[in-house]
Amino acid sequence: MTTPLLSACLLIVSALLPVGIVQAGQQDGLSVQRMTELVHEVTLAQNKATTRGATLEDVERLYAMYTADFIYEHPGMDDVYTRELLFRNHTRALERGVYDDYDPAEYGYRIVETMAGDGAVAVHRSQARLGDAPPRMAVFEFRDGKVARIREYWNY
């Protein structure tokens, strides 16, 4: 079931999706079920790699789910990161113990709902620590059976 907020966001996001990624997802032949499973798998891997107890193996497992040219975008904050930059920053944060204070129950994402399109899945995610904050929406785009891009649509 899709909420009105997610539906409105999806209309906006659909106009912003790059045609090449969407077509690649169609050519890849990922089913809606498989794309949705990948969203859940990546979210679990993100939670494990960014909270207390995270290991280098957890980080490597997460980044193995991304294409070699993976891009993370956060349009609301004008951020665009390559896979290489994210991985380097992630491993440095791990070495410095940044995630040691991040309780998985508070900081881990949980998926509230998803809506799939051609080669992409919009995801409504939340974290316990956010309480009544507005929902966090992300769009996962796929190619070659992996996540090629994640766009986050929130700014707080």
From TrEMBL:
Residues 1-24 form the signal peptide. The keyword Signal applies. Keywords: Signal. InterPro entries: NTF2-like_dom_sf. SUPFAM superfamilies: NTF2-like (SSF54427). This is Nuclear transport factor 2 family protein. It comes from Luteimonas salinisoli.
